[in-house]
Amino acid sequence: MTAIGYVDENGGDHSAADYALLTPETEELTGWVAATTGMTNQNPLTVSGEANLILFDGANVTVPKGIAVNEGANLTIWQQSDGSGTLIAAADSYNAAIGGNSGRSFGLVTINGGVVDATGSKYGAGIGGGNQHIGTVVINGGSVTAQGGYHAAGIGGGTQGLA
After folding, report:
1. Which of 142, 140, 73, 76 is nearest to 101 (CA)?
2. Quick check: 163 and 135 in contact, CB under 8 A?
3. What is the sign of the dihedral through the CA atoms of 112, 163, 24 and 119?
4. Which of 21, 23, 60, 99 could form a disulfide with 106 if both were Cys (CB 3.0 to 4.6 A apart)?
5. Based on C-alpha coordinates, what's the Rg of the chain?
6. Pairwise CA distance, residues 111 & 37, whole Å
7. Residue 141 DSSP code
8. What is the distance between the alpha carbons of residues 97 and 79, in angstroms, rounded to a whole number?
9. What is the DSSP letter of 71?
10. How many Å apart are CA 122 and CA 130, to the nearest integer?
11. Of 150, 23, 148, 145, nearest to 86 (Cα)?
12. In 3-state terms, what secondary structure has residue 137?
């Protein structure tokens, strides 16, 4: 497999040689995952361990059922050189678009680049907690737009939760 390039939050060049491709059928994000083309994935995506998502320049990825980052798990989002890869995420009721789901806390969400647009559901943050649950969000770079659902933060806690 040919190594793929990405840049860190400071513009430093890196590469990943062992990665999977994000497809419309993907359900679990684990290890290094490359979003190389535009697509819509109708599955709720889950991160249980450590996942690194590289948004390729020009790729527009839509995840209308969100990305659940389980407690103790880590999701890091990276970009390629021009930072034009886009992730659009939304969520079902009580869940964050990226982060926690109702009924459990979430781990760590780190955004180092790319264009991220996240819209939380009723009681769920755009990026952060679902209903009444907590975790950690770190934004080091990229262009981030986040809107919380009813009674929830854009970035941070869902209703009655903290991040």
Report:
1. 73
2. yes
3. negative
4. 99
5. 14
6. 19
7. S
8. 19
9. T
10. 9
11. 145
12. strand
Give residue 128's region: left, alpha or beta (phi > 0; psi -120 to 50): left
Determine contact, residues 46/7, Cβ cutoff 8 Å: no
Closest CA to 144 of 126, 125, 121, 124: 126
Contact partners, residue 11, CB within 8 Å, separation at least 6: none
Q: pLDDT tens across 123-150, in order?
A: 888 898 887 667 899 999 999 999 988 8
Instruction: Quote the CA–CA distance of 71 and 137 in Å, as a whole number.
Output: 13
Q: What is the pLDDT of residues 33-77, one digit of tens each?
A: 999 999 999 999 999 999 999 999 999 999 999 999 999 999 999
Q: How many CA atoms lie within 13 A of 120 on its CB side?
A: 32
Question: What's the pTM value of the predicted model, to 2 decimals?
Answer: 0.94
Query: In Å, how far from its chain's centre is CA 129?
Result: 13
**What backbone torsions phi and psi does residue 61 show, to the nearest 5 degrees?**
-110, 130
* 3-state DSSP assignment of residue 109: strand
Look-up: residue for tokens 């760590």? 108
The per-residue b/e assignment along 68-96, b for 16 or more CB within 10 angstroms, e otherwise, is: bbbeebbbbbbbbeebbbbbbbbbbebbb
